[in-house]
Amino acid sequence: MPSPSRLLALVALLVSANAIIPPGHQGLPHQTPDNITHPTTDNSAIVQAANQVDQKQAAPADAPPNVDVPPTSVTAIDGTITNTTIADVSASNSTFRRELGRRRNIGRFGKRQSGFEKVFDGLPAGQHDASIEGTAYLTYTVVNNATYNVKACTDWCTTVKGCVFVNLYYEFNNQLLDFVFSEKSNLKCAAYGDVHAAAEKLNFGGQQSYDQVGNETVPLTYITQSSGWALQGYVTDTPDGYDLVFGPTGGANNAPGYMGFAFLDQYDVDACAQLCNGRGADPNGGGCAYFNIWRAVVDGVPTTYTCSMYYLVADESTAVNYGQGSLVVTLSRGYARKTVLPDGGFEGYTACDDFCFTTSYSNWIGVSPAPADFDATFFFFPPYAHSGHGSALLGSAFDDDSLAGTIKPAQPLKTDAGAAYVVQCFMSSAFSGPAEEASAKVDIMWNGERVGGVSGFSEYTFVEAPVVATGSDLLSFVGGSAPAWTFIDDCKVYKA
């Protein structure tokens, strides 16, 4: 039988073996997160959906002129064909309410830069012709039909948001144009948000507009002198809260961090930005940080407008998908979401190349309640980070006390007063294991008010909180109670 001294030594050894080595002494987490494999763009799903969707439309024969341009709609989402609004898609994916109903004054395909040029002529007056049946139809008007009034049509286009192309033609045997609508003109001017070619003149009329009277033959509608006119130059504005990364080019991104795609019925960068803002978070990668918008041309004809979303920011080096089969990528642009939080991944702390930590550095400040210290620290140590090498820790780094610490950016955040933002972070309260971390708690504070947070044991988990800016905002994270430590990493503050 072992002696009492040996038993005491054995107990001490067991206690020592099971003791938690705190982060300040380079202890290892209770469980090391699995390596993350970032998914890449699913090009085959995009091509398959592009061959199924039908977004082509002609100016209707039975609708009045000057109908308001409808908002951009979603015609497919992650391969499922649909017909819904941007706000509905974003709201269904989002975990909290956003200001999705508002539309910024961005425009769709572009804003006007110069005059118009002829794309194609109409057939001679005595021959039946056809009007455009194409993507990105907006609305139509009628112009004075005393002459073939091209200028009136193109001038009107400049008043229609997103108009870059018009199709001018006569439509005969339309009772509504001839007798019902107040303009009493059959010279139709149809506006589109994309440029179309003569090969897309597919609407030959053939509708019955006049009422049947007895056995008389009812004349059918027909079209003559259908010509097309396009803006000579236009640019696409950058959505609010984003930076243009590249484009336009003929290559779409094939990049990691892929979250999914949507088809839009118009080339609308603002709509794509709203989808990115409202996209549900990836559990490993977080919120949408980048989108790639491009036009799919199939057999030479514009077919749809793809909005691919990513949680990692890509660039032109991965824009290497030029199309597949008869599908060609055109007008590809990449946009990165701007965060107003400098160094939210704590990668700016580089005092070593292996293991070190500090209570403050140029971008962040850690605050401990007096007389304690090291209750809020910043680490250079990849095993503690969600990504990269940097992370922040709340709770005494050496397990000297159970007090809460505070971390905050070194400077107030520069925001747009009154605008909606979202704070996004990854937080891990798992270092000490489920039992010790059960009481872990962190509050996200915005100008001194709690707006969100986490509690209890968890591996790195995505956390977000909506806020409204004042123009110079104070962000802080408060919590930690060693050994219920919480690590924080990959924080961003985006416009919502």
Shape: elongated
- The number of distinct β-strands equals 30
- Largest sheet: number of strands, sense, barrel closure: 8 strands, antiparallel
Please, what is the average pLDDT? 91
The structural domain count equals 3
Rg result:
30 Å
Uncertain regions spanning at least 5 consecutive residues: 1-17, 95-107
- What's the N-to-C terminus distance? 69 Å
**Class inferred from helices and paired strands:** mainly beta
Percent strand equals 35-45%
Signal peptide: 1-19
Keywords: Signal
Protein name: Fruit-body specific protein a
Organism: Mycena venus
Would you write up a description of this structure?
With 496 residues, this protein is mainly β. The protein has 3 domains: 43-109 and 236-337, no CATH class; 111-234, no CATH class; 342-495, Jelly Rolls (Sandwich), CATH 2.60.120. The chain has helices spanning 4-18, 43-50, 86-93, 150-157, 175-180, 269-278, 434-437, and strands at 73-77, 80-85, 111-112, 116-120, 131-132, 137-143, 165-172, 187-192, 201-203, 222-231, 234-235, 242-249, 258-264, 290-298, 301-310, 323-324, 327-337, 356-358, 364-367, 376-380, 390-394, 405-409, 413-414, 420-429, 441-446, 449-455, 458-468, 472-473, 475-479, 486-495. The strands form 7 sheets. Strands 1, 2, 12, 13, 14, 15, 16 and 17 form an 8-stranded antiparallel β-sheet that branches. A 6-stranded antiparallel β-sheet has the order 18-20-21-30-24-27, with no helix packed on it. The termini are far apart. Residues 1-19 form the signal peptide. It comes from Mycena venus. This is Fruit-body specific protein a. Keywords: Signal.
